[in-house]
Specification:
This protein is of the alpha+beta class and 148 residues long. It is 36% helix and 11% strand. The protein folds into two domains: 112 residues, Glutaredoxin; 34 residues, no CATH class. It has a four-stranded mixed beta sheet with strand order 2-1-3-4, sandwiched between helices.
């Protein structure tokens, strides 16, 4: 299941949710200010991040700069507690699925969240169809091949 971590005033968060809606890809939106935003959410983000906290935390955040926070010196538990107390330090939106994490809205990179069958149909349609972009056929799943 895809989760999108958002904040209410984030325009990129709205763009990401709109993109998922338009592509009919189910997701769960979760506000970083919500009481159900948890240490487990933060641990999942870190575990799927290629560069640890650098990918998900804004080191230029006011609270980080004013308090000279060094995330590299924190334990995971301390980091989670800090983020829960100061959720604005997180970059947004953060998109997480079973295998990967993406931060921000990037129209090219977000396509990796399209299920494989839809991506294959999209590629096939784009190469052959003169109506590409004007119809929804590129969003339909590719039929599975039946054994002979």
């Amino acid at each position: 299941m895809i989760k999108i971590y958002t904040s209410p005033s984030c325009s990129s968060c709205r763009k990401v949710k709109k993109w998922f809606d338009e592509n009919q890809i189910p997701y769960v939106a979760k506000s970083i200010f919500s009481p159900d935003f948890s240490k487990e959410d933060i641990k999942e983000m870190i575990s799927k991040s290629e560069n640890g906290t650098d990918d998900i935390i804004s080191r230029r955040s006011k609270i980080v700069l004013e308090n000279n926070i060094d995330f590299d010196e924190m334990t995971i538990s301390e980091l989670c507690s800090f983020v829960l107390a100061n959720p604005t330090v997180l970059k947004r939106p953060i998109i997480v699925d079973d295998h990967r994490l993406q931060v921000g809205y990037n129209e090219e990179e977000i396509r990796t969240f399209i299920p494989r069958a839809k991506r294959l149909a999209y590629l096939a349609c784009s190469q052959e169809c003169p109506m590409f972009g004007e119809c929804d056929h590129h969003l339909d799943p590719v039929p599975e091949e039946k054994p002979a």
